[in-house]
Each structure stands twice: as C-alpha cells, then as structure tokens.
Write a structure and sequence with these properties.
Blueprint lengths: L4 E5 L5 E5 L9 E8 L2 E4 L6 E2 L4 E3 L8 E8 L5 E4 L3 E3 L6 E4 L8 E6 L13 E4 L8 E4 L8 E7 L2 H9 L12 E5 L8 E5 L3 E4 L9 E9 L14 H7 L2 H7 L3 H5 L10
Antiparallel strand pairs: 1-2, 2-6, 3-4, 3-5, 3-7, 7-8, 7-9, 10-11, 10-15, 11-14, 12-13, 14-18, 15-16, 16-18, 17-18
C-alpha cells in the first residue's frame, strides 16, 4: 500500500501535512496514526477522514522521528488494512504552546524558565496489603501514571504572546477545553509532546517598566489529549471564497485536492 507524503511546515505553529496519494481502490475513509516517542497517537483531524483529504498534525514533536501510517476502511466501515509508513522529523528549535482544538490561531512561542527543572513525579497509586503470616506485603495498585504536580515556568517576550497564552484556557466570553499542548526541544525530560492541565499564574517581569516580558508559573498534571476527531481546519471555505468565485478557483488549481491544500490562503477571509 502507498505510504503517506509528509510535508513539514515550520512557519507559524509548526505542523506536518500528512497526505495519502494512493490507497486501496475500495477505501472510503482513513484513520491516521503517528508513532513518536515510543507511543502511538491518533492524528488530530485524521480520524475517519475521506480519502484524498490531508491531515495537519500540529502535535508532532520537534526534532524527534515521527512515523505515519493509516488504517483504510471501505464504505461499510470494514478495515482494509494499513498503508505503508513514512518517517519525518520537524527541525524546529524552541518551545510552542497551543490549544489543541485551535492550533492554527491559539498558539504562542515561549521559553522554558529555569524554575522548570523540578523533580519529575510519575506516581503509581495503590495500597500495600499484608495478608496473614506473610513476611512481605502485596502491592495492589494501578499502572504508573503520567507526570503529576510538575512545576513549570513559561516565559513570553511579547504582550501578544502572553495574551494568547491566557486565551488558550478561556476568556470572559469564550470557553476552552482547559488543556494545553506543549512541544519543546528544551533539555527537559518531559515528553516532547506534552498535554498538560493547570492554571496559569502570571508574573510581570518588565511590563510595569515599559517592557514586554511576562512569566507564567503553573503546577501541571499530564493528561490525555482531547478526542482526536475534534479539530479546527486551517483552511476554510470562507478563505477560498475570499480568493475568488468558482471560476477563479477552477482556474487557480488543477484539482479540488490541490485547492484544498492551498494553505497559503489560510486566514484570507479575516
């Protein structure tokens, strides 16, 4: 089976476009997976998508091999097996935080502060039980959990970045999912793709003196990402309509697939 075509995009909030140019002729839909950091992830926006549609993976880790493949399904939802796989690496140096459900708009570059290198705690909850006449206890518990109570400091260099970081968790008028995706190449021993839940404590560094540096502190818990079938598209029909009418669009691209991958038009509608 054909392997995916992978195109890393570093401008803005970095992502990988995952596109399958050739699949089983009976395939009607695809579910795309990424293998990275020894974990298999569903690709957001790539769950049950139609063939010929690309998925944009804004959760791919930086400077870490990421391998993609897709499971193919026929019109009745029966599996037709997996495609071949392809591996790529996003060569971005830095740290990006974004709202998983609004990755193309609610994102900000940050720096990981020096106070973020606290102990990394991954608890295993349970109980030590001593049965009658036993010389040692029996542990009854759960599997090891993700990071807990991780003290993190994120530094922003502009007021705009600070405002967007705050907006990722919601505003007075907009509700958000309350989960952040933090991707970093910093030398911290967190997952390179780290989904975190925690409230932000904002600390002014230089704003009161006319500057723009702000620090955000939080105690983060590692959480599961929101359901990967939920995604906000980068390119919308409003953007295409802002480019021109149907005649202009037909003249601009050879196929509808080419048109739907014209990400340079994203945001054209304002």
């Amino acid at each position: 089976m054909a392997a995916p075509l992978l195109t890393p995009e570093l401008a803005g909030n970095p992502f990988v476009e995952v596109f399958f140019d050739g699949v089983d002729p009976l395939a009607n839909s695809l579910t795309i997976y990424r293998l990275s950091e020894e974990r298999e992830w569903l690709v957001r926006g790539g769950v049950g998508i139609a063939t010929g549609v690309a998925a944009l993976d804004f959760e791919v880790p930086f400077r870490t091999p990421a391998t993609y493949r897709a499971e193919q399904f026929d019109l009745l939802g029966n599996s037709l097996g997996f495609t071949d796989s392809t591996t790529t690496t996003v060569d971005y140096d830095g740290t990006i935080v974004h709202n998983p459900l609004a990755a193309s708009s609610l994102w900000a570059p940050v720096r990981v502060g020096p106070d973020s290198f606290a102990p990394l705690k991954r608890p295993t909850n349970g109980e030590l039980v001593y049965v009658e006449d036993a010389s040692a206890g029996t542990w009854i518990g759960t599997r090891r959990q993700g990071l807990r109570d991780l003290n993190v400091q994120l530094l922003t260099d502009t007021i705009d970045a600070a405002d967007r970081l705050q907006a990722m968790l919601g505003t007075y008028t907009t509700r958000q999912v309350g989960v952040l995706c933090i991707r970093t190449t910093s030398s911290v021993r967190w997952p390179r793709t780290f989904f975190a839940r925690g409230d932000l404590e904002e600390l002014d560094r230089t704003v009161r003196f006319g500057g723009s540096h702000i620090a955000f502190s939080s105690s983060f818990d590692e959480v599961q990402p929101p359901f990967s079938g939920l995604a906000t598209p980068l390119l919308t029909y409003d953007d295409l309509d802002a480019f021109g009418d149907y005649a202009a669009q037909d003249a601009g691209w050879l196929t509808y697939t080419d048109r739907d991958r014209a990400y340079e038009l994203a945001g054209l509608a304002g």
